[in-house]
Amino acid sequence: MEHGRAGEEFGNVRPWWLPGWFEFPTRPRSPQGWALWVILALALVWVLLFLWRLSTTYWYLALPALAVIAFGTDRYWRSLWAAEQERRERIRSFSLTFEQMRDMHWREFELAVVHLMVRDGIPAEHNGKAGDFSGDVIAYDAVLGERWMVQVKHYGPNNKVKSDDVQKVAGAAWHIYQARLKLVVTTSGYTRDARTFSAKAGIHLIDKAALIRWATDGVHLHDVLGITPSTR
Questions:
Q1: pLDDT tens digits for 179-228?
Q2: What angle do CA 221, 173, 198 make, to 5 degrees?
């Protein structure tokens, strides 16, 4: 199985220096929206000028404050750079373009999901066979302290995962595999009913867009799914 090329060619990778909480504002599509943008821009300029005047008047307070801000900013950007280095290392160790995954045989894709989980430090085994009760990949996540049951669907763009498929995952995860963490991965998407049921049943979903972030951009599985030991 051929590895993808490392680097920024993959997907639409978010710049490493951009904090995860920051989102670029969408471009206004109406006169009212543009007017609001202008008002906000003027308000921002006024705030900056006000802070500048305060800093020049009370310079003996502004200098220590700036030093603290500079130190905190430096530590924060260093943490972002460390996370970016980890992401690049994951890409070097194993990555796949969407085209590579799309052209795989469904069993190859199941094995690719195993490699992606192992790459992210989650020991996993391929379990896909007749009578697997929807458990194609089984893994133990030491960070979360739980077992994963993963159903893998290698579908074309016009074939979405249906509610019946995710319901099978919900029914088998604990009773068959003692897995509290449930995940469905597909090269396509999900029907509305499948998403609704998964949200209620606590099933994590990876569609085409999330798959590119995981397999191609090198984002860790936990970050793709937005889970941490505290939020689980």
A1: 999 999 999 999 999 999 999 999 999 999 999 999 999 999 999 999 87
A2: 65
Sign of the CA dihedral with 37 first, then 43, 44, and 45 last: positive
Kindly tell me if the per-residue pLDDT of 5 is higher than 70: no
User: 181 with 148: CB under 8 angstroms?
Assistant: yes
Q: Please, which pLDDT band fits residue 230 given cuts at 50, 70 and 90?
A: low
Which residues in the chain are classed under CATH 3.40.1350.10?
98-225
Tell me the C-alpha to C-alpha distance, in Å, between residue 21 and each of 41, 48, 78, 228. 20, 22, 16, 16
| Phi–psi pair at 172, nearest 5 degrees | -95, -25
Q: Which two tokens stand for residue 171?
A: 């029914």
CATH class of 98-225: alpha beta
